[in-house]
User: Fold this.
Amino acid sequence: EVQLVQSGAEVKKPGESLKISCKGSGYSFTSYWIGWVRQMPGKGLEWMGIIYPGDSDTRYSPSFQGQVTISADKSISTAYLQWSSLKASDTAMYYCARCRDSSGYCVYWGQGTLVTVSS
Amino acid sequence: EIVLTQSPGTLSLSPGERATLSCRASQSVSSSYLAWYQQKPGQAPRLLIYGASSRATGIPDRFSGSGSGTDFTLTISRLEPEDFAVYYCQQYGSSLLFGGGTKVEIK
Assistant:
């Protein structure tokens, strides 16, 4: 069974750094792209970027380029989304998803990680 | 850059009724690279339709997708209680982008 299990909710202060994770199981982790999607409170879905764990090829949405870093450690079948300096506006639910390819639809989704940034 | 506009913003219907959701792109979507997702409160999105009209595995046949070019439609033939949710279209292929969503609520 394909599963994507994300790390737990985080509460951080503005300016702090953060790295959240998404662990894949039940399939060959290095053979599928993993995408990240943001959902701000009460709002819609926003595409952030995507990574191919096999060779760490990474693509970012223009809106998120330079704002976050997407990475992966194929030895532990885990993808990451990280911030170097959080802002209050980063408060959102973040989902990872296994996608057909670098610009494809996504069938399997993680349960989401809620990030709250507040002073 | 392509913009996806979903309408209506909210659709108020009763169980058993037919739901018709629209997704309009500002430019033609290549090769009908258009997907639809369902999201219920507190849950991750679920893929319903890809390639504009192909149902994902396990999706009931009351869900159907149609359209090409710039105009796409998701139809739910007879609403079941579990279908009341928010629906998003997504363009893929050259870039990845979601529409703003349509909420289907119980009338």
User: Anything to note?
Assistant: Chain A touches chain B at residues 35, 37, 44-47, 50, 61, 95, 97, 100, 103-107, 109-112 (CB under 8 Å).
